[in-house]
């Protein structure tokens, strides 16, 4: 267990920003679409000093947490279906990477 923890600590943090455009969500939430997170995830994985399964998992978990927090904290709150679309778009990007 210690070896895995040490490996994850050596992962260089990658600043993931999942900014949802306020203009798309305010006033016309039905028109907003899930983002394509593939380019962001591909850059994050490419920037890893050691591209190991543990390092990739750490990046994926970080991305999920950041997006979950941003979607949760967005005001006004987007509909549940739109929040789910964003999370599914991220999962799709993770599968492609």
Secondary-structure class:
mainly alpha
The run of helices and strands is HHHHH
Which regions have little confidence, pLDDT < 50, spanning 5+ residues?
1-14, 18-32
* Portion in helices: 55-70%
- First CA to last CA: what distance? 26 Å
Total DSSP E strands: 0
Question: What does this protein structure show overall?
Answer:
- With 97 residues, the protein is mostly helical.
- It has one domain (2-12, 36-96).
- It is 61% helix and 0% strand.
- It is built from five helices and no strands.
- It has helices spanning 2-9, 22-25, 38-46, 53-73, 80-96.
- Helix 3 crosses helix 5 (80-96) and helix 4 (53-73) packs antiparallel against helix 5 (80-96).
- Residues 1-14 and 18-32 have low confidence and may be disordered.
Key descriptive features of the protein:
97 residues, 61% helix, mainly alpha, disordered N terminus, elongated, 5 helices
Quick structural overview:
With 97 residues, the chain is mostly helical.
């Amino acid at each position: 267990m210690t070896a895995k923890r040490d490996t994850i600590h050596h992962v260089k943090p990658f600043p993931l920003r999942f900014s949802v455009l306020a203009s798309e969500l305010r006033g016309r939430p039905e028109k907003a679409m899930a983002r394509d997170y593939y380019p962001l995830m591909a850059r994050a994985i490419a920037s890893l000093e050691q591209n190991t399964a543990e390092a990739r998992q750490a990046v994926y978990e970080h991305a999920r947490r950041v997006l979950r927090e941003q979607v949760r904290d967005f005001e006004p709150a987007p509909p549940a279906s739109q929040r789910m679309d964003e999370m599914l778009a991220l999962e799709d990007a993770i599968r492609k990477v």
